[in-house]
Amino acid sequence: MTRRCDLMGTLPLSGQLRSHAENKTKRKFRPNLCNVTLMSDILGRKFRLRVSARALKSVEHRGGLDAYLLKAKNEQLSPDCLKIKREIQKVTAAAKAAA
Predict the structure, then answer these.
(1) What is the pTM of this model?
(2) What is the CATH number of domain 13-98?
(3) Where are the domains positioned within the chain?
(4) Distance between CA 7 and CA 48 in Å, rounded?
(5) pLDDT digits over 16-43, tens only?
């Protein structure tokens, strides 16, 4: 299983450690992934996601999972998050049509 963020699509990066003598040693920069349960206000359900700490801060900043998913690009979302996004769009479209 890849260490990939479900919301931002963040993947591990490769780089180098540099000593004082400028010796190069390969290393990986892995995203800080957390297993979290996020609540969707529109759907009224909870979703378990594997999210980076940075994405979690972005979700809080945008005002919740629903607002984050509606504004996010489809390319960076995981297939599970795309399903959630489509469900949210259907419910909001139905609510606008009913009003």
Answers:
(1) 0.85
(2) 2.30.170.40
(3) 13-98
(4) 12
(5) 999 999 999 999 999 999 999 999 999 9
